[in-house]
Specification:
binds (2Z)-2-iminopentanedioic acid; binds NADPH dihydro-nicotinamide-adenine-dinucleotide phosphate; about 450 residues; Rossmann fold; 3 domains; 18 helices; 5-stranded mixed beta sheet
Length: about 450
């Protein structure tokens, strides 16, 4: 069978076996479509049915999460952990709390994580977890009770050498703290079972900043290759959560001007440049809406609806909120306004047709599994520090992060060129991530 036919038949089976999981289908299709030339040159992958195996999670856990709210009412959520691949290390990947979470979202994220983690060059397999719990509007007490119930089940399936979760949408330092406390209490062990921990109890410096900083480091490397830099560039960053905030911070440090940010309700445009201290106060401390920014800074304008952010003229766009937030209409607006670089801070924020449009129009496009790998990379460094029972300085962790992002850029660039797709970083990232996992699977036999 030709490589194309193999890919088609694997994809057909994925559709059949995972009905209704459109985000998972989308993520699988993008990776499979990148692999034709690799399979042509490596028939051993076909022989060993690597593709059929790599699209099937090693283990899927789904569980009831009952808890009691502040009014004494019983609530029931659904919890997930998908342990996708342990070919190159313990399962590793975040936990997402958002009402939109269902199995298809966790599988897409777990699948992406396999290749992303491979790109970091560290020893981490891929996994993802989460719940349809909505932290918005909940008290700290309710969040704690939910996290404790979630971890009461999850703690049976994870461990510092088995599966190491971290944060994602709706899961930050507060939630990691509650989950760590419950794990420690039930298992009676103080180990690096979660990353993104507080600095007093095993966390790594730079983990909070890592995804956003890493995103900007990889774009900076791409610009450097073109003899360019962030200095004087106008930048749009969607979202106003962990990834977005620290992407903005690093862009501003490098001399760029960020003029727009968003949340799920709408976006702000501040032609004088976003005042990040205000966004941090609103989002990290007060947990308020981005709209409130305009009450403090009269130079800014708020527009309802988050998709309109792509109409803001910019040189560089960093979608950093959620999946499929940048569609074909958004891509056309960016192209028309002269945007030259799009790099994904979020996981799969760009729809496939939008990504095609950007690439056809010579916009440099860095896919999430490369561009947002800085977060999990520093999680890997947190695991290394926990194993050493030692904490590195900010400078050391930051230098390691930068080095990892530069290497990812070089590797995906080289892989794209080697397999006849020069400048297509989607193909480059998928191939570079895949080969290491596939070769490890070959070496470990049929498991
Ligand atoms: P946060 O929860 O800190 O922030 C999420 C941001 O995205 C908020 O501004 C939120 O707005 C917005 N958002 C979430 N869901 C939607 C939606 N359905 N529609 C529109 N806007 C939405 O999460 P993170 O910053 O950690 O994560 C952002 C993205 O980055 C995700 O795709 C995540 O998977 C990815 N990522 C995160 C990493 C990390 O280390 N944290 C690492 C790599 C990738 P609102 O407040 O209104 O909900
Ligand atoms: O999507 C991601 O890479 C994350 N949410 C971070 C995962 C991690 O284990 O740090």
């Amino acid at each position: 069978m030709s490589s194309k036919k193999v890919i088609e038949s694997v994809y057909e089976l994925v559709l059949k076996r995972n009905p209704g999981e459109s985000e998972f289908h989308q993520a699988v299709k993008e990776v499979l479509d990148s692999l034709v030339t690799v399979l042509d040159e490596n028939p051993q992958y076909i022989e060993a049915r690597i593709l059929d195996r790599i699209v099937e999670p090693e283990r899927v856990l789904m569980f009831r999460v009952p808890w009691v709210d502040d009014n004494g009412k019983v609530q029931v959520n659904r919890g997930f952990r998908v342990q996708f691949s342990s070919a190159i290390g313990p399962y590793k990947g975040g936990i997402r709390f958002h009402p939109s979470v269902y199995l298809g979202i966790i599988k897409f994220l777990g699948f992406e994580q396999v290749f992303k983690n491979s790109l970091t060059g560290l020893m981490m397999g891929g996994g993802k977890g989460g719940s349809d719990f909505d932290p918005k509007g909940k008290s700290d007490n309710e969040v704690m009770h939910f996290c404790q119930s979630f971890m009461t089940e999850l703690c049976k399936h994870i461990g510092a050498d088995t599966d190491v979760p971290a944060g994602d949408i709706g899961v930050g330092g507060r939630e990691i703290g509650f989950m760590f406390g419950q794990y420690k209490r039930i298992r009676n062990e103080f180990v690096g079972v979660l990353t993104g921990k507080g600095l007093n109890w095993g966390g790594s410096l730079v983990r909070t900043e890592a995804t956003g900083y890493g995103l900007v480091y990889i774009v900076d490397e791409l610009l450097k290759e073109k003899g360019d830099s962030f200095d004087g560039k106008t930048v749009v960053v969607s979202g106003s959560g962990n990834v977005a905030i620290y992407a903005v911070e690093k862009v501003q440090q490098l001399g760029g001007k960020v003029v727009a940010m968003s949340d799920s309700n709408g976006f702000i445009y501040d032609p004088q440049g976003i005042k990040l201290d205000t966004v941090k106060q609103l989002k990290e401390v007060e947990r308020k809406r981005i709209k409130e920014y305009t009450a403090i800074h009269k130079s800014a304008k708020y527009t309802e609806g988050c998709a309109g952010i792509w109409n803001v003229k910019c040189d560089i766009a960093l979608p950093s909120a959620t999946q499929n937030e940048l569609d074909a209409a958004g891509a056309k607006a960016l192209i028309k306004n002269g945007c030259k670089v799009v790099a994904e801070g979020a996981n799969m924020p760009t729809t496939p047709d939008a990504a095609d449009l950007l690439i056809e129009n010579k916009v440099a496009f860095l896919p999430g599994k490369a561009a947002n790998a800085g977060g999990v990379a520093v999680s890997g460094l947190e695991m290394a520090q926990n194993s050493q029972r030692y904490a590195w300085t900010f400078e050391r962790a930051d230098a390691e992060l930068k080095n990892i992002m530069v290497n990812i850029y070089k590797n995906i660039n080289a892989a794209a060129e080697k397999y006849g797709a020069k400048g297509n970083y989607i193909v480059g990232a998928n191939i570079a991530g895949f080969v290491k996992v596939a070769d490890s699977m070959l070496a470990q036999g049929v498991v």
